[in-house]
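FIELD: query
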Amino acid sequence: MRIVSAQELEDWLASGEVLERDARGPKVVALENGLFLKIFHTRRQRWLARLRPAASRFAYNAERLRQVGVQAPEITDLLWLDRQAGLSACIYRPLPGESIEQLYRQAPQKAQQLIPSLANFVYRLHRRGVYFRSLHLGNILLLPDGEHGLIDVLDLQFKRHPLSSWRVQRNFAHLKHYLRRRKLTDFPLDSLIAHYQDCAVHEIRRS
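FIELD: result
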């Protein structure tokens, strides 16, 4: 991982566009060259953040997803912003497209047409053993080719087998909580779950 000077980081923040921030500062910055800078403000103990930096875990997860056929950001550089504090970052090539949440807020009726393909995408993730605890509409993109991809991939695990029904239920419970928190309670979650269940039935019939 490359160590970034304070001046280099300041130049990026001054010339780029901050797309996401929280109380601790910028989280995602669009750079002038078209790449994105993602900063990980860790809540872990400093020694643990140094041992397993969030930027490395993000890059690992993105690569594993691509290996199982799921489109994810392509990381071009791993960075230490403050190694002593465990503050890491990465530069990546963003996926083209819009999040399902953006599409739904812009045109709810049109976005509902995506429910079958979205359900199939989530089902394929679960069958491949991908447990994405933060799976929600803001993390899933609709790509120009009509496929779906994932963007914020830090908080996921890869299981050796398809997810259990218990983990599937937890994933949908998290999504329901997200919709409530984001005031998207009119999103057709029941329809999404029904299509998801149809995917499972069709797979059983094929086997």
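FIELD: remark
Residues 98-206 form a domain with the Transferase(Phosphotransferase); domain 1 fold (CATH 1.10.510.10).
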